[in-house]
Amino acid sequence: MRKRKIAAIGLGVSNMSVITFLTAAGCSVTALDRKPAEQLGKEMAFLEQLGVSCRLGESYLDGLDQFDEIFVSPGVPIHIPQIADAVKAGASLNGEIKLFMRLCGRQVVGITGSAGKTTTTSLLHAMIEGSGRDCVVAGNIGAEVLSRMESIGDDTVVVLELSSFQLQIVDTSPHVGAILNLSPNHLDHHLTLDEYYQAKENIIRFQSSEDFAVLNADDPRTLQLARSCPGIPKLYSLQPMSSEGAYLDGDDLIYRSGQVEERVCTKSDINLLGEHNLSNCLAAILMGRICGVSAESIRNAVRLFRGVEHRLEQVCCSKGIVFYNDSIATSPDRTIAAMRAIERPLVLIAGGHDKNLDYDELGDAIVSRARALVLVGAASDRIRRSVEKALAERALGSRGEASLEVTTLEVVQQAAEFREAVETAVSLARAGDAVLLSPACASFDMFRSYKHRGDTFKQIVKEITEKQS
C-alpha cells in the first residue's frame, strides 16, 4: 500500500477511519468528496492535521484513473462512470471491511441479511462477552473496526454486521458467515436485484472448507446456498430438523450436534416480539455454539437481552395505547414482520424515501392487519396505490364475486410532514390499539438517518402523551 497511489472517495465515518489507519501506516492518501472545504468542518480540520491532500467540490472525481487503489465509502455506487473507468484502467476497489478482512478474517463472525442483522449481531455479542471472552462488534454498528486493530488480540472474536454495500467489493469471507434472509432491498443503489443478492452472498463465497456458512433453512434463497457454499453449511429453522443446527421444537430452542440435542432456552426466555426474532435468536444460538459459547452462557444472554433501539422498541403506553418505534423498518418485509408481531389493532405510520421496491405485498398486509394507516413522505403515493389495489382485490374475489377475506383497514390518511403524521395517528388510535412507526422506506427524504427519524418519533410521542396526562 505504501507504494500505491490511494484515493478515498467520501469522507464519512468509514473512510475517515481508513484514512487515519493508512496514514498511520505510512501510506499516502488523497481524500475526495463532493462537498467543498467549508462544509466539511471537523473532517477538514482533521485531514489538515494529518497532512492529507484533498480534492473537493463538483470536480472531485476528475483524474480518478491516476490512482492505483480506490477506497469507496459504503453507499457510494461503484457504477459511477469515473469509478468504473478507473477500474478499467487498472485501479483496485477497496474499503474498510475489505482491508480488515484481509488482515483479520480468521477471527471474524460476519452477519448479513435483508433484515435482523443488528438484533442478531448484538445478541451474539452479548453471548460471547457473557462467556468471558473478548469480543469486538463493528461494521454497520459499533466502532470503526480499523480503529480497534491494536486492541484485537489472538483470542478476540470480531462480530461484524455487514451490509450489501460493504460486501459488494470484498474478496475474503469471514470464518463464520451468516445470511439471515434475502429479500428485495436497496434497488436505489444496486443496478439489479441479482447484484444485491450477489453482494450479500460474498459473505460466504470466499470461504474455505474449514469455515462455516450459517444459513436460514426457512428462506428458500438462503437454503439453496447450502448446496453450493465452499464452507461447512450450518442451518437453523423455526421447524424441527434432523440435521445439525438450531431449531424450534414446540416452545424449546434446540441446538443439535451430531445425534446430541441440547435445549438451550425457551420462548419465554426471549424478551423480543415476533416470530422473526425467534429466527434471529436461533441464528445467534447457532453461531454462539460454533464459537464455543456454552448453552448456559447463551441462555443467560437471551434472558437479559432487551432488544435494540428503533427495532420494535416500545416507547410508552398512554391511555391504553401502546407506541412502538420500528424506524429501522426501511423495507416492506420488515414492516410486514412488525405488523405480525403486534397482536393489538394497529394504527400504522408508513412512508419515506423510495428505494424502488415493490409494495404490493405490504399493501395486502396493511389491508388485513392495520385498522388505520397514516402515510407520509416521498413513497406515500406508491404505498397508497398498493393498498387500494389490495382493497379492490378483496372486494372482488378471483372469479369476480364478492370476497369473504377479512379487511381490518378503516381509514387511510396522508400527512404533509412527519409531526402531522404522528399527531394524526394518535388522534385515530383508541384504547387497546398500538401506534406503530414502521415506515417500509428509507428516511432520507426527511431525516439524516433511521435513528434520527426514530428519535424524532419518540420525542413527538413524549410531548403528546405528557400533554394528555
List the helices and strands and how they pair.
Blueprint: E1 6-9, H1 13-24, E2 29-33, H2 42-50, E3 53-56, E4 69-72, H3 81-88, E5 92-94, H4 96-104, E6 108-112, H5 117-130, E7 135-139, E8 157-161, H6 164-167, E9 176-179, H7 193-205, E10 212-216, H8 220-225, E11 232-237, E12 245-249, E13 252-257, E14 260-266, H9 275-290, H10 295-304, E15 313-318, E16 321-325, H11 332-341, E17 346-350, H12 360-369, E18 370-375, H13 380-395, E19 411-414, H14 418-428, E20 434-437, H15 450-468
Parallel strand pairs: 1-2, 1-4, 2-3, 4-5, 6-8, 6-9, 7-8, 9-10, 10-11, 11-12, 16-20, 17-18, 17-20, 18-19
Antiparallel strand pairs: 12-13, 13-14, 15-16
Properties at a glance:
469 residues, Rossmann fold, UDP-N-acetylmuramoyl-L-alanine:D-glutamate ligase, Protein-Tyrosine Phosphatase, Chain A, 15 helices
Short description:
With 469 residues, the protein is of the alpha/beta class. The protein has 15 helices and 20 strands.
The global form is globular
* Through-space gap between termini: 62 Å
CATH architecture call of the largest domain: 3-Layer(aba) Sandwich
The CATH topology of the largest domain comes to UDP-N-acetylmuramoyl-L-alanine:D-glutamate ligase
Structural class comes to: alpha/beta
Helix proportion: 25-40%
Uncertain ranges: none
Top CATH class of the largest domain: Alpha Beta
Query: In what range is the share of β-strand residues?
Result: 15-25%
Question: In total, how many domains does the architecture comprise?
Answer: 3
CATH superfamily annotation of the largest domain: Mur-like, catalytic domain
| Spatial strand order of the main sheet | 7-8-6-9-10-11-12-13-14
By DSSP (H or I, 4+ residues per run), the number of helices equals 15
Q: What is the rounded Rg?
A: 23 Å
User: Biggest β-sheet: count, sense, barrel?
Assistant: 9 strands, mixed
- Arithmetic mean of pLDDT: 94
Number of strands: 20
